[in-house]
């Protein structure tokens, strides 16, 4: 996926969440609903999160320096990890606290119809944002299931936006349910229960994102399919075997490859250099993300790792 991939989904989510946050907070001031307050904070956090994702995409494009010779591609992973932490702290923890408070000290809602109208409009806007993220994700998801895509994607922004939008949409439904049940039963405790459910939902989503983005941040290797393509392209012409190989993503579109390759001992130095250049060109043509490649010619030894064993640990 290109560096620009996911930008449309992020901007759509940012615009939707900014407008929704203002509407929800206004609804809270009118109704006093804790569900509306929790959803207001949730939308403010989401708006900030989308800003951080855009910042990460921007800073990751900086040129390599002496201090960072491999560039700043992991900025995108770092800011995605910060987003996950913010979703947990500002979203989940606050909603759980507010829900507990409203359950312990329930207060009747005033003009609840205002909250209902705002929530229905917010659901429509979040549906649009969610649809945009799904549409952009389908272009790179391929045959993977949505869960596999979230687990295996090396580009962090789209999985983050997908889960954020899904959480926002279901959170709005929970808030609508809490307000609606409070009105129907005359018991404001339901508003607090809805708020607490929103907190649990956001907590689960945040934990999934924290686990996935942390894995990317500390370094993931190429998956089996990509690794197979790399080995296949290397072992052509006069490369007899890949003795061992290590891979690691240093950014969503930057794969580092280091490998020992077995060449015929009869080759001259010039022929070895030409074979290495040709092997690198073949790999880059098949795997465009393979921008950094270091191939070492060697003779096979019995103690060396096999290509599969030598591959960098990757996320299943």
From TrEMBL:
Cation efflux protein transmembrane domain mapped to chain residues: 10-217
Keywords: Membrane, Transmembrane, Transmembrane helix, Transport
Annotated compartments: Membrane
Entry membrane topology: Multi-pass membrane protein
Top-rank taxon: Bacteria
InterPro entries: Cation_efflux, Cation_efflux_CTD_sf, Cation_efflux_TM, Cation_efflux_TMD_sf, SLC30A9
TM annotation in the entry: 77-97, 113-134, 160-181, 193-211
Protein name, per record: Cation diffusion facilitator family transporter
Organism of derivation: Saccharopolyspora erythraea
């Amino acid at each position: 996926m290109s560096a620009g991939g996911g930008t449309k989904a992020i901007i759509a989510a940012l615009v939707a969440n900014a407008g929704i946050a203002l509407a929800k907070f206004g609804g809270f001031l009118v109704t006093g609903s804790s569900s509306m307050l929790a959803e207001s904070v949730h939308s403010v956090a989401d708006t900030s999160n989308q800003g951080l994702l855009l910042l990460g995409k921007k800073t990751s494009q900086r040129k390599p320096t002496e201090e960072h010779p491999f560039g700043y591609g992991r900025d995108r992973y770092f800011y995605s990890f910060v987003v996950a932490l913010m979703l947990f702290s500002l979203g989940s923890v606050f909603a759980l606290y507010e829900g507990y408070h409203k359950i312990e000290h329930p207060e009747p809602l005033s003009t609840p119809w205002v909250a209902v109208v705002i929530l229905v409009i917010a659901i429509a806007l979040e549906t649009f944002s969610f649809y945009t993220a799904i549409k952009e994700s389908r272009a790179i998801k391929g045959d993977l299931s949505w869960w596999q895509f979230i687990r295996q994607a090396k580009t962090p922004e789209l999985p983050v936006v997908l889960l954020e939008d899904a959480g926002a949409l279901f959170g709005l439904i929970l808030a609508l349910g809490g307000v609606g049940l409070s009105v129907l039963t005359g018991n404001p405790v339901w508003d607090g229960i809805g708020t607490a459910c929103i907190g649990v939902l956001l907590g689960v989503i945040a934990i999934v994102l924290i686990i996935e983005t942390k894995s990317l941040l500390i370094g993931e290797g190429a998956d089996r399919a990509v690794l197979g393509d790399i080995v296949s392209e290397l072992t052509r012409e006069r490369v007899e075997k890949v003795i061992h190989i290590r891979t690691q993503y240093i950014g969503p579109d930057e794969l580092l490859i280091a490998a020992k390759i077995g060449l015929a001992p009869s080759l001259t130095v010039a022929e070895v250099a030409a074979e290495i250049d040709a092997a690198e060109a073949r790999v880059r043509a098949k795997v465009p993300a393979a921008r950094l490649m270091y191939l070492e010619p060697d003779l096979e030894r019995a103690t060396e790792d096999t290509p599969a064993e030598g591959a960098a640990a990757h996320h299943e």
